[in-house]
């Protein structure tokens, strides 16, 4: 996906580097208020949906509208305001579309580099819509299969979802580790090269 970024040799390393501290700081800002105002844990564990964050925010705020404003989904809010179901459904659809577009572009890039099976098929781009339709259909099938796993075992589904964050961290660490093991022999110079910093000393 680097080809869609202006000046990727400079922007992408900065984006990857800054994502770690920004994620850590925003995570701390999000978690600290929750830790100081956490309701009774037994009440949260007894939620039938298995998603206690909506109930937690409602209990913290003290009223349904406050919980809804924080999480945008809560069973008690929907019980009193059923027309909000469509709003949440629309938000979910927009998120799903954006994620599918990004993932299909990445899948097409992998296929173009012959990094996945049947790469000649999934690397094709529809000439009319300029969209990697085959890659998008592949991702749709995978998403449906993951949804079927949730119907049988929520624990297995949560394991698939949880491993995504570990894979994301590993994807950042792998190129750095390979570069260090090779003694940075494959990198002669770059926009953010540390040689320039050393020469300025």
Automatic annotation (TrEMBL):
<keyword id="KW-0813">Transport</keyword>
<dbReference type="GO" id="GO:0022857">
    <property type="term" value="F:transmembrane transporter activity"/>
</dbReference>
<dbReference type="Pfam" id="PF00324">
    <property type="entry name" value="AA_permease"/>
</dbReference>
<feature type="domain" description="Amino acid permease/ SLC12A">
    <location>
        <begin position="1"/>
        <end position="167"/>
    </location>
</feature>
<feature type="transmembrane region" description="Helical">
    <location>
        <begin position="86"/>
        <end position="110"/>
    </location>
</feature>
<dbReference type="InterPro" id="IPR004841">
    <property type="entry name" value="AA-permease/SLC12A_dom"/>
</dbReference>
<feature type="transmembrane region" description="Helical">
    <location>
        <begin position="157"/>
        <end position="181"/>
    </location>
</feature>
<keyword id="KW-1133">Transmembrane helix</keyword>
<keyword id="KW-0812">Transmembrane</keyword>
<protein>
    <recommendedName>
        <fullName>Amino acid permease/ SLC12A domain-containing protein</fullName>
    </recommendedName>
</protein>
<feature type="transmembrane region" description="Helical">
    <location>
        <begin position="53"/>
        <end position="74"/>
    </location>
</feature>
<keyword id="KW-0472">Membrane</keyword>
<feature type="transmembrane region" description="Helical">
    <location>
        <begin position="20"/>
        <end position="41"/>
    </location>
</feature>
<feature type="transmembrane region" description="Helical">
    <location>
        <begin position="131"/>
        <end position="151"/>
    </location>
</feature>
<dbReference type="GO" id="GO:0016020">
    <property type="term" value="C:membrane"/>
</dbReference>
